[in-house]
């Protein structure tokens, strides 16, 4: 990647961050804090569970910060029609970005047509209303399966591929980001998520091809940039 372009990216790293709070025990007050931090630091988006989309929408009213939510999360094993309904309801509540988990078991069973239809059900539901990021959960996939998952996401009409839920055995790494970039090129965005806790790691992800960073450590990343 062009060094000048990388410098532009890392100097505005806050605009790459999806400020995230997805733990099962997250409270309403913690979501309010998340949103207020997103406003203060001018993050790209907040990423919350579907039940908190409505609250985030109220807290972020009259800002340009997007609300991202997760669908079929974190296992990806939900019925396709349920994923589509969940996405529709989230959009109606205010979500502008949808991070959906693929059916990991179906991919590993070589049921590629099913996986594409599963993604496409959400893509069709959200068409023109929300950006779709497809979580492929790299920690469970072989090298060949990662390639196949990226190709299926492109074919299904997704806008991004995303490494991880953050609930698997490991999150984002440079090797996987580089591989994903080699497959999707400039056709899709790439979201690196899971285990990114400091500025230097975030920069390395961007240099490898990430165009969005999913992290619960957004404040820490931006503040460490200033040191």
Question: What would you give as the CATH superfamily?
Answer: Aldolase class I
Major sheet attributes: 8 strands, parallel, barrel
Percent helix among the residues? 40-55%
Uncertain spans, ≥5 residues at pLDDT below 50?
Answer: none
Radius of gyration: 16 Å
The CATH class: Alpha Beta
Biggest sheet, strands in spatial order?
1-2-3-4-5-6-7-8
Count of the separate structural domains: 1
CATH topology: the name is: TIM Barrel
Shape: globular
Would you mind describing this structure in some detail?
With 227 residues, the chain is α/β, with parallel strands linked by helices. It has one domain: TIM Barrel (Alpha-Beta Barrel). It has helices at residues 3-11, 28-41, 53-59, 80-93, 104-108, 112-126, 143-155, 174-184, 199-208, 218-225; strands at residues 17-21, 45-48, 66-71, 97-101, 131-135, 160-162, 189-193, 212-215. Strands 1-2-3-4-5-6-7-8 form an eight-stranded parallel beta barrel, surrounded by seven helices. β1, α2 and β2 form a beta-alpha-beta unit. The model has no long low-confidence stretch (mean pLDDT 95).
